[in-house]
C-alpha cells in the first residue's frame, strides 16, 4: 500500500520540481496550447451537437415540459456528459499524444538531464527524435485500442461480463497511463515495446498508483491540458527514482 500511495502522490510532489526549472516551463507552452486547442475543439463541438440532438429527440423546444420529461432530459444529460468526457479523453489521448510527441520528448529529455546530472542522457537529432517519439506513440495507441476492444467484448457475458470488463478496464487504464508517461526515457533507449511493458510491470504497485493518478488527471477537462507536461516530467523522474531503472532491470534490456 505504501508503494501505491507513493506512485499516486508522485505527480503532485513533482509540481515543485517542475516549476523550479524554467526550462521545463518554456518547453511546455507549445504542447499546452496545442492540447488546449485539440481538447477545446473536440469538447465544444461534440457537446453542442449532443445537446441539440437530445433536445430535438425529446422535443423539448416544441412542448410544454413536464416533470418526467425534465427528469429524463436531466438524466440523459448527465449520462451523455460522462460519455462525452470519456470520448474526449480518448480523442485527446490519441491526437494529443501523436501531435505533441516531439515536444513531450524534449521535456522528458530535459528532466533526464537534470535528474541524472547529464549522466545518462540519450541525445538524438530533431528528425530522429520526432520519428522515434511518434512511432512510440502509435505503438502505444495500437496496444491501447486492441486491449480496449478485448475488454469491451467481455460485455457479451451476461451480468458478470460488465462487472469484469469494468474491473479489468480500470486496472488496464492505470497500467497504460503509467506506461504512457514512463515511456519517454525507454523510447530514447530504443527499447522494444514488449520490453517497455515488462519494465513498467516491474514497478508493481508504484506503477498502478502512478497510473491511477495520471488517469484521473487526464480525464478531467482543462486540468488534463495543463497537467500533461507535468506528468511527462513526473514519469521521467519516477523512471530514474524507483525500480524501473535499477541495474538488474537495465541488464535485461540494454540499449539498442
Report what the structure shows:
The chain is an all-alpha fold and 256 residues long. It has one domain. Helices cover 82% and strands 0% of the residues. It is built from ten helices and no strands. α2 (22-58) packs antiparallel against α4 (101-115), α2 (22-58) crosses α9 and α6 (160-188) crosses α7 (193-202). It is globular. The mean pLDDT is 82.
In short:
This protein has helices at 2-19, 22-58, 67-99, 101-115, 126-153, 160-188, 193-202, 205-219, 223-241, 247-252.
First CA to last CA: what distance?
A: 35 Å
- Describe the sheet with the most strands: none
Helix content: over 70%
Q: Could you tell me the mean pLDDT?
A: 82
Strand content: under 5%
Give the overall shape, derived from the CA principal axes. Answer: globular
SSE arrangement, N to C? HHHHHHHHHH
Structural class: mainly alpha
**Low-confidence blocks of residues:** none
Task: Give the SSE map.
Layout: H1 2-19, H2 22-58, H3 67-99, H4 101-115, H5 126-153, H6 160-188, H7 193-202, H8 205-219, H9 223-241, H10 247-252
Which features characterize this protein?
82% helix; 256 residues; mainly alpha
Amino acid at each position: 500500500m505504501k508503494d501505491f500511495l507513493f506512485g499516486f502522490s508522485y505527480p503532485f510532489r513533482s509540481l515543485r520540481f517542475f516549476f523550479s526549472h524554467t526550462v521545463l516551463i518554456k518547453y511546455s507552452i507549445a504542447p499546452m496550447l496545442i492540447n488546449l486547442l485539440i481538447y477545446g475543439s473536440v469538447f465544444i463541438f461534440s457537446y453542442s451537437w449532443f445537446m441539440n440532438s437530445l433536445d430535438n429527440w425529446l422535443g423539448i423546444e416544441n412542448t410544454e415540459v413536464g416533470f418526467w420529461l425534465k427528469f429524463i432530459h436531466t438524466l440523459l444529460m448527465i449520462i451523455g456528459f460522462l460519455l462525452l468526457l470519456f470520448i474526449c479523453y480518448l480523442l485527446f489521448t490519441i491526437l494529443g499524444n501523436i501531435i505533441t510527441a516531439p515536444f513531450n520528448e524534449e521535456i522528458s529529455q530535459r528532466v533526464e538531464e537534470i535528474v541524472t546530472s547529464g549522466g545518462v542522457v540519450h541525445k538524438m537529432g530533431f528528425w530522429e527524435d520526432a520519428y522515434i517519439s511518434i512511432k512510440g506513440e502509435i505503438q502505444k495507441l495500437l496496444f491501447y485500442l486492441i486491449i480496449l476492444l478485448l475488454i469491451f467484448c467481455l460485455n457479451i457475458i451476461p451480468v458478470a461480463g460488465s462487472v469484469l470488463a469494468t474491473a479489468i478496464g480500470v486496472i488496464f487504464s492505470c497500467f497504460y497511463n503509467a506506461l504512457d508517461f514512463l515511456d519517454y526515457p525507454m523510447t530514447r533507449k530504443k527499447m522494444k515495446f514488449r520490453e517497455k511493458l515488462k519494465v513498467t510491470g516491474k514497478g508493481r504497485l508504484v506503477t498502478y498508483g502512478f497510473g491511477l493518478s495520471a488517469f484521473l488527471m487526464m480525464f478531467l477537462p482543462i486540468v488534463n491540458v495543463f497537467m500533461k507536461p507535468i506528468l511527462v516530467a513526473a514519469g521521467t523522474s519516477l523512471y530514474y527514482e524507483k525500480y524501473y531503472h535499477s541495474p538488474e532491470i537495465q541488464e535485461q534490456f540494454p540499449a539498442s
